[in-house]
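Researcher: Good morning. I'm working through a list of sequences from a screen, and I'd like to move beyond sequence-only analysis. For each chain I'm collecting a predicted structure so we can compare shapes side by side. This is the next one on the list. No need for commentary yet; just the structure.
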Amino acid sequence: MIRPILRMGDPRLLEVSRPVERFDTPELEELLTDMFDTMRAADGAGLAAPQIGVQLRVVIFGFEDNQRYPDAPPIPPTVLINPTIEPLGEILEDGWEGCLSVPGLRGVVPRLLRLRYSGFDAKGQTFAREVDGFHARVVQHECDHLDGILYPMRVVDFTRFGYTDVLFPNEMRGD
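Model: Good morning. Structure tokens for this chain:
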């Protein structure tokens, strides 16, 4: 089921989410199915449970290709529950970000270039991946939602933040 996506200004997006305590349940499976349906319907690269009003530490991400990020490499469809992020170095990379909860806007955000993320899958099995570039950016962006952080809070230079259609008038990038 496609669920409504909360937009910036909704106080629920600023809350810290609680950990998932039970895995491999019908409720968790339904949540994950709804999250993937909602993300795909909105042509998103990822989605965090708080964006649909569920205050649990659950994020999903992944796509083969994405109209909103046409130059981005594919990312495998991933369920990441109760995530942790470990930096692999101190190098930050600036990159344009958008968000389904902040429609129509884009901004440049510095993010770790390389990291290791770990957590649980839907069945409660632990896993970890080392990633870089856009994959690392997506993970950081989605995990920020679990701590009540929206990407505009991380924008450093507000001359590089604005409406997508103004910033990129010749590109068809929806938000």
